[in-house]
């Protein structure tokens, strides 16, 4: 049961981390804040993306849809889809998720609901309510989860990447601004809207180097982490971004090539500035997931 709960909540949190921009780059953000200016049809890629970064940061909210596919060779191979609304500064989110493992499962895709509010993530646990005293929602206090994960392997499985989740689309643009080979590939259409297509890539160390969960490591731990990643065959992160005529990103694709296949994410943004009216689920229908896991581990011991 522990592994079932850990997998369900861990995969859900991973998907939200991707949607929220798990690989936000603060160095790129600083660069974006000081470069470029708006206007002009012949802007260089860095100038255009800098304007998009600034406008997106100021918008503070958008409607989102995302798909993430994991290849069959990875443990959680399959597809996750998400849609809803997110806001940033502060981060809030209300999304519906659908998870479809490769090979399928009885009853088809598993759908759930996730809410992020006040540094707490709520996951609709659906059919797994028997482990939560009949309550429908599982609650993650992000600060408490980060503290507990430091010395507990199961908690680390569930909370992996929580330190890096508080990112937004503007910081994904900042990530791309840190690429040494950003280029403009021309114009196209996204959902019937004209958009300019930009592309760039980042090496593993550049892509992961500013993540909080990485910067908190010792030099020896970082060296070991990057060595293991290189052994896994992951070499780079490939970014494609489409920016509309109002200088907002309307589509972002990220591909991570591994020996087991390519991890693909594709996110579409719309209605920038739309109100992100996010509410927490009823307290009397909510269980503390970390407490549930602690109790299960105590029973095991």
UniProtKB/TrEMBL annotation:
InterPro entries in the cross-refs: LolA/LolB/LppX (IPR029046)
Ribosomal protein keyword on record: no
Signal peptide (UniProt feature, chain positions): 1-22
Record keyword Signal present: yes
Keyword terms: Signal
UniProt protein name: Lipoprotein
Species in which this protein is naturally found: Streptomyces noursei (Streptomyces albulus)
């Amino acid at each position: 049961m522990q592994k079932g709960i850990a997998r369900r909540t861990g995969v859900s949190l991973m998907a939200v981390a991707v949607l929220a921009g798990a690989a936000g780059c603060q160095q790129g953000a600083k660069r974006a804040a000081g470069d470029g200016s708006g206007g002009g049809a012949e802007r260089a890629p860095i100038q255009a993306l800098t304007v998009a970064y600034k406008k997106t940061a100021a918008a503070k909210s958008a409607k989102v849809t995302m798909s993430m596919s994991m290849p069959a060779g990875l443990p959680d191979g399959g597809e996750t889809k998400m849609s809803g609304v997110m806001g940033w500064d502060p981060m809030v989110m209300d999304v519906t998720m659908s998870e479809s493992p490769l090979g399928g499962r009885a009853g088809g895709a598993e759908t759930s609901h996730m809410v992020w509010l006040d540094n707490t993530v709520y996951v609709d646990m659906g059919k797994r309510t028997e482990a939560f005293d009949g309550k429908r929602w599982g609650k993650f206090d992000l600060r408490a989860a980060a503290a507990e994960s430091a010395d507990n392997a199961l908690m680390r499985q569930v909370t992996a990447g929580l330190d890096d989740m508080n990112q937004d689309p503007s910081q994904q643009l900042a990530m791309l601004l840190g690429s040494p080979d950003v280029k403009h590939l021309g114009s196209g259409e996204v959902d019937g809207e004209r958009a300019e297509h930009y592309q760039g890539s980042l090496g593993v160390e550049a892509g992961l180097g500013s993540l909080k969960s990485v910067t908190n490591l010792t030099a020896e731990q970082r060296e070991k982490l990057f060595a293991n990643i290189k052994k896994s065959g992951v070499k780079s992160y490939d970014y494609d971004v489409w920016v509309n005529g109002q200088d907002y990103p309307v589509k972002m694709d990220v591909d991570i090539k591994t020996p087991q296949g390519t991890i693909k994410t594709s996110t579409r943004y719309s209605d920038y500035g739309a109100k992100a009216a996010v509410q927490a689920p009823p307290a009397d229908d909510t269980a503390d997931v970390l407490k549930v896991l602690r109790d299960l581990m105590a029973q095991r011991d």
